[in-house]
Specification:
heterodimer; A: mainly alpha; two-stranded antiparallel sheet; 8 helices; 52% helix; B: alpha+beta; eight-stranded antiparallel sheet; 45% helix; globular
Chain lengths: 163, 372
């Protein structure tokens, strides 16, 4: 059996850990086990997940035939490489990935930098939603003059967002 | 800028002038970014990778920070040149293995290096001498914002920046510092420190990053997680931990002087003796001994003005640097001879260790006053 980390040496250290009721198994060669400090099992917590080994098992539990519509990446590919195929893979494999990310990181949601482009997109979608709500209300109240003006604003916004 | 210019310029971050430079060799921050709806480099077909490269490279070269930069496709660099860049930490080992479809662009001062199509479409890193993580991040943040106007990055409202490896998702940021910790190693406290650091979500690694051995008492410490914490929070937390380690290192050195001065003189004397007289030396041995000389300078056993000469040897005695300084291809054995020769020549300016200052500091310690 080959080492899960370097994938070239024979595994000599077999580690099984139960984390939150789930069993995690890792096979390591001598060098990698030393590198990861496996001699001391208490210091080893979740190292497998951090390396994306547990990741492979976690993601396997999803529908095994699932394939990313953008890049054609499958779960088997993830098991092999520990890397994803494209940014859409995060949507395709979202269920399987969420448990993995939770174990791997400090939190589950990004709180850092937001690119300005994404900032504008959020703003636009917020404004669009508000306008649509107002429009429905205006129509319900048979306030057609306001509705017409709102419809124009929505059209304007649509053209802005596609620019 | 040509490759020879990269070689002749040592790079600002190597000069050892930053804050806490006795313990913190350098600070670096890197950001991982990808283009939306494009396969990540490891999964992309060659044509796709090339298309991404053609899209990104001009945007990077256009940055004001990249005026007079060194910009090269990976297939146009020789294996030796790539290895030289790895030894200078300007590209990763993974990037050095890349060929067509990847590129590297770095500024003249070698404080900023951008890899295209490494594990992610963009890996941008900024390096500084000493403990300057905040400053390194500030420059990188500016570059990132400038590029974001030209390129559409893969970003998700919940998960942040999307990366090839889930361990980088969120901020896509890895901040790290290279620490020189001979005091903690000599007093056998290093494992304790390494374990304590790993328990608080930080990683400790050897000289050349993941999976490399700790040589020359050099350790890299970095954040392990990237999701659920703001960039500046990560940097502040890391900086605080590093400041604690700096204090621990100074404490360890102080205790060594007080309690184990004989061991210390012995280590410094032996390192000096071997380095100035040996005729064959591996790069590992060289790093380990140079580390002790560096400690000797910190403690006043060698004159301060010899620091640069010693620091330069850390890089210049690495295999690819040696190979490049020689005209013909060298075997490992020939390299060891050349390495020893370069060290002997360069250390001619280094006087014998003067331990009088150290001995004074040791004062009435338990050990007898060392004599020469």
């Amino acid at each position: 059996m080959l080492c899960d980390v370097c994938k070239c040496n024979d595994a000599t250290v077999f580690l099984t850990q139960i984390i939150e009721g789930k069993m995690q198994k890792v096979n390591l060669c001598d060098a990698c086990s030393k590198e990861k400090g496996v001699q001391d099992p208490t210091g080893f917590a979740l190292a497998d997940l951090l390396l994306g080994i547990g990741a492979a098992e976690e993601i396997e539990k999803g529908a095994p035939t699932q394939k990313c519509p953008v890049c054609g990446f499958t779960q088997a590919d993830f098991k092999k490489t520990g890397r994803l195929g494209c940014s859409t893979c995060y949507v395709t494999f979202t269920d399987a990935l969420s448990a993995l990310l939770k174990a791997m990181h400090k939190g589950t949601s990004h709180v850092g930098k937001v690119p300005q482009r994404a900032h504008r997109a959020v703003e636009l979608s917020d404004r669009m939603r508000n306008l649509n709500e107002s429009l429905q209300k205006a129509v319900a109240e048979e306030n057609y003059e306001t509705a017409a003006s709102l419809r124009d604003q929505i059209k304007q916004l649509e053209s802005e967002s596609t620019r | 800028m040509k490759f020879s210019n990269v070689m002749s310029n040592a790079g600002e971050w190597l000069r050892g002038e930053g804050p806490h430079h006795q313990v913190v060799i350098s600070s670096r921050v890197r950001l991982a970014r990808n283009l939306r709806n494009r396969a990540f480099p490891g999964w992309a077909k060659k044509a796709e990778r090339t298309a991404v490269l053609d899209l990104i490279k001009p945007c990077v070269e256009k940055l004001p920070e990249m005026q007079d930069s060194f910009s090269e496709f990976l297939q146009d660099l020789s294996a030796l040149e790539k290895q030289v860049l790895v030894e200078r930490h300007l590209i990763s080992r993974e990037h050095a293995a890349k060929s067509a479809g990847s590129a590297v662009i770095m500024n003249r001062r070698q404080t900023l290096s951008i890899m295209i199509n490494e594990e992610d479409h963009l890996r941008m890193q900024s390096m500084r001498s000493g403990l300057q993580l905040k400053q390194a991040f500030k420059l990188l943040d500016k570059i990132d914002t400038a590029l974001e106007n030209e390129l559409e990055f893969a970003y998700d409202h919940k998960l942040g920046y999307l990366t090839a490896c889930p361990t980088n998702v969120g901020t896509g940021m890895r901040a790290s510092a290279m620490l020189h910790l001979p005091g903690l190693v000599l007093s056998e406290l290093i494992n304790q420190v390494v374990q304590a650091v790993s328990k608080i979500g930080l990683a400790v690694r050897g000289l050349y990053g993941e999976g490399t051995e700790a040589m020359g008492n050099l350790f890299q410490i970095s954040n392990q997680t990237t999701l659920g914490e703001k960039e500046d929070e990560i940097i502040t937390r890391l900086t605080k931990v590093i400041e604690t380690i700096i204090q621990k290192e100074h404490d360890a050195r102080h205790v060594l002087i007080q309690k184990k001065s004989n061991t210390l003189w012995d280590q410094i004397g032996r390192a000096y003796g071997v380095l100035t007289f040996a005729h064959a030396m591996s790069s590992k041995e060289a790093l380990n001994l140079l580390s002790i000389i560096k400690l000797g300078i910190d403690l006043g056993a060698f004159p301060e003005d010899k620091r640069l000469a010693v620091d330069e040897l850390f890089i210049d005695t690495q295999p690819a640097h040696l190979q490049r300084s020689s005209q013909q291809k060298l075997t490992a054995e020939e390299r060891d001879h050349l390495r020893a020769q370069i060290i002997r020549t360069r250390l001619k300016v280094l006087p014998k260790p003067d331990i009088s200052k150290l001995a004074k500091e040791a004062g009435n310690g338990s050990t007898s006053t060392p004599t020469e």
